[in-house]
Amino acid sequence: MTKFDDATQAIRVDDTTYDVCLDAAYTMGAAIHGGYLMAVMLRAVVDDSPHEHPVATSAQFLRVPKLGPATVRVDRIKSGRTTTVTRATMVQDDTPFLTAFVTTATLRPYDPGAEPDGLTWEAPARATMPPIEECRALPAPKPESNMALNAQMELLFDPPTIGWLTGEPTGRPESRAYFRMAEPQDPDPFVLALAVDALPPVVFSAGARGWAPTVELTWYLRALPAPGPLVLIADGDLIAEGWFDENVEVRDSAGRLVAQSRQLARLGRG
Amino acid sequence: MTKFDDATQAIRVDDTTYDVCLDAAYTMGAAIHGGYLMAVMLRAVVDDSPHEHPVATSAQFLRVPKLGPATVRVDRIKSGRTTTVTRATMVQDDTPFLTAFVTTATLRPYDPGAEPDGLTWEAPARATMPPIEECRALPAPKPESNMALNAQMELLFDPPTIGWLTGEPTGRPESRAYFRMAEPQDPDPFVLALAVDALPPVVFSAGARGWAPTVELTWYLRALPAPGPLVLIADGDLIAEGWFDENVEVRDSAGRLVAQSRQLARLGRG
Asked: What ipTM was predicted for this assembly?
């Protein structure tokens, strides 16, 4: 079991309740990473569902939780042959901090030789990445910043999209990077939950700074990923009235589109 | 009051309950239009919220409802200074057929002379529409098809994106049209709820046919629209394993991005 698998465990207590423990390794300053919280929640949902894979997750980020014990409550709203729809709520001290609808279904295992299953069509990637050797990590965070999250994953950025670090933002919302877990672990749906929210806010490239709280994030799991590093391609369409959207496309090492997310977030203050 | 306003009325019964009536004008064969159902639900949510505008709606389509009376149950999960998060569920005979999380907030009124409010950036439209005079309506549906919905709105399509009608699909998932209500009515957030789900499924242009049931649809209201017709620009990134995504960008008559939606749906059978 990897550290990530361990830190996202959900232990069934009864038909509608799972115990989880929010791990200090996934902190970002005073907050806990939203993708990590979704991964923990999805462990409970998938365990409870007759279907194996979270194909659609719509998450509402309500409050910043504390480290340590929390509860996931699951409520199966509908279960059919093809899909199950679950409402999941993460709670501390009887107060919800994350709630979501999750549709589970069963996807085909990754198989590079598989024949298409019915009508198949895929758009080209929204941006072309330079070779991984030309990509760059962010500088190591200062210990006092409490960015423990950064040690859990390796992000290697398309250099212009971190130009904001040195006062050269590209002038539009965008961010692109290769992603893998710091310890050896092939991507699975729970790693993808982390990955869809792993990039710095796209608005940094448009000149914004500060923590940008996610209000709503919906992501779709479209295929089980091939082993190897992922590519994260993020952009946004509109920054206005203090709000922005962030779209993330996740491609696996075989170049296949494996996840899509969009979130609505608030611009940071200062 | 327009017919649409009347058909989407929600009457408050008590703190958590609204009575609504699903109108035969919004049927599509044996189904009722999903965007219309969202508009009805949002009337109740907005009436109940201290905030005026549904900025994020994540809807789970569970079952096909019947025409006539239904109930909307609202549960305010969180209410703060900037946003309120509500769970809304539409029910008939104690069985939910649509459930959603809705974030409400307050946006600025449309004002062509307004100064930007903080950092502002907008992507160009994802496709350029031909002039409205060069666009074409779908042929009138046969009365026995029970497509009453088509009489409520006027859609004028970018011709190649309805080439599938005459055996000439473009070969990729796409659909684009000018949209307005059949009776005089300027767009508002409820009309936008209808509009984001108003196009034929994008997969028709990729060679698919048949009813394509929406599983999950999330849409963001990004700005209050200018009066006049809307432009709907839809595409998809992946068709695989019987699933497809559909992205819709809605621009107002001033060319501003006013709504964004993405849905995950199943390919029709036959």
From this structure: 0.97
Q: What percent of chain B has pLDDT over 90?
A: 90
Return the pLDDT at B268: 84
Q: Do B237 and A122 touch (CB under 8 A)?
A: yes
Give residue A147's pLDDT band: very low, low, confident or very high (50, 70, 90). Answer: confident
Q: What is the pLDDT of residue B78?
A: 96
**A contacts of B55 (beta carbons < 8 Å):** 215, 243, 264
Contact A78 B101 (CB under 8 A): no
Q: How confident is the model over A63-71, as a mean pLDDT?
A: 97
Taking CB atoms and an 8 Å limit, are B55 and A122 in contact across chains? no
Cα(A111)–Cα(A118) distance, rounded to whole angstroms? 16
Is B113 inside any structural domain?
no
CATH of the domain at A170: 2.40.160.210
Does a structural domain hold residue B139? yes
Asked whether the beta carbons of residue A123 and residue B85 sit closer than 8 angstroms, the reply is no
Kindly identify which residue of chain A lies nearest to residue B236, measuring between CA atoms.
Answer: A123
Quote the CA–CA distance of A79 and A100 in Å, as a whole number: 16
Residues of A whose CB is below 8 A from B87: 99
Q: Look at the block and give the residue holding tokens 């994106």.
A: B161
Domain extent for B221: 3-107+129-266
| Domain-located, residue B162 | yes
- List all residues 6 or more positions away from A238 whose beta carbon is below 8 Å from its beta carbon: A244, A245, B121, B122, B123, B222, B223, B257, B260
Of A60, A118, A264, the CB nearest to B242: A118
Q: Please classify residue A156 by burial: count the beta carbons closer than 10 Å to its beta carbon, then call 0-12 exposed, 13-18 middle and 19+ buried.
A: buried
The count of domains in chain B is 1
Cα torsion B90, B222, A270, A98 to 10°: value is 20
Confidence of residue B206 (pLDDT cuts 50, 70, 90): very high
Residue A116 is assigned to a structural domain of this protein:
no
Express each pLDDT in A201-226 by its tens digit.
999 999 999 889 999 999 999 999 99
